[in-house]
């Protein structure tokens, strides 16, 4: 059964909402073998064209923050779903755990339609995060911001809602709230940047194009929830934070 865009959780959210705790331990998957040498708030999504403007344009007209976004197609054990992700180095993608869950095969493609060969995948117990190592090199990756954003700071989400075209939506950080899915995670960010099913795993960026968080859900009143950058960094630095993903 095809269910495009399963990979975004819609939640009824109130500040301080309790949630069940998850725990676990493990290690990040190893890097693959060496590769051979040979933005108005609450605006609706707008599909980007190759002529879109921006700094650091490549020959095809896309800028660096657009090139780092990938579409993820999860051919699952019982259904097909779509999500988004983004590169943090030449061979590492960040996305959501629920984007890669129960996978028979992960199909990753870049902004220009090129397929990327996937190696190992690992998921976190504490947060809705996953790390995907790729065999093929990734075309671009953004910088990480120095700190988490504050209320009123601008936010831009770059991803593939409904598994369709690359889109950019803009808004601002509304504040923080308790994570309704993982009680042990603590605070997550609440923004009014529009997201849709398939946006899960998208990078949330500041006004300089630096990563400030990872989209993982939306609320019943259509606000978006982000795993903060500081949480992502802490978990990437922790050898026990991720375990190999389980397939079918």
TrEMBL record:
Stored SUPFAM superfamilies: Trypsin-like serine proteases
Gene Ontology molecular function: any one: serine-type endopeptidase activity
Keywords annotated in UniProt: Signal
Signal sequence, start to end: 1-21
Stored InterPro entries: Peptidase_S1_PA (IPR009003), Peptidase_S1C (IPR001940)
Gene Ontology biological process terms in this record: proteolysis
Transmembrane segments: none
Source organism superkingdom: Bacteria
Name assigned to this protein: Trypsin-like peptidase
């Amino acid at each position: 059964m095809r269910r495009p865009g399963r990979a975004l959780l819609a939640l009824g959210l109130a500040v301080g909402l309790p949630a069940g705790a998850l725990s676990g331990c493990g290690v990040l998957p190893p890097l693959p073998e060496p590769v051979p040498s040979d933005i108005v708030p609450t605006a609706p999504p707008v599909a980007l064209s190759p002529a879109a403007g921006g700094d650091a344009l490549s020959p095809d007209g896309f800028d660096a923050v657009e090139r780092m976004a990938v579409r993820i197609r999860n051919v699952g054990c019982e259904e097909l779903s779509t999500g988004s992700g983004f590169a943090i180095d030449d061979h590492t993608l960040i996305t959501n755990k629920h984007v890669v869950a129960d996978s028979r095969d992960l199909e990753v493609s870049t902004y220009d339609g090129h397929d990327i060969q996937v190696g190992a995948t690992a998921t976190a117990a504490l947060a809705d995060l996953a790390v995907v190592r790729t065999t093929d090199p990734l075309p671009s990756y953004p910088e990480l911001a120095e700190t988490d954003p504050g209320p009123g700071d601008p936010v831009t989400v770059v991803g593939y809602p409904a598994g369709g075209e690359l889109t950019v939506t803009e808004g601002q950080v509304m504040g923080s709230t308790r994570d309704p899915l993982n009680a042990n995670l603590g605070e997550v960010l609440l923004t009014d940047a529009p997201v849709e099913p398939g946006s899960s795993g998208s990078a949330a960026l500041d006004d300089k194009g630096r990563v400030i968080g990872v989209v993982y859900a939306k609320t019943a009143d259509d606000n978006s929830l982000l795993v903060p950058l500081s949480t992502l960094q802490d978990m990437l630095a922790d050898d026990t934070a991720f375990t190999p993903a389980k397939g079918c």
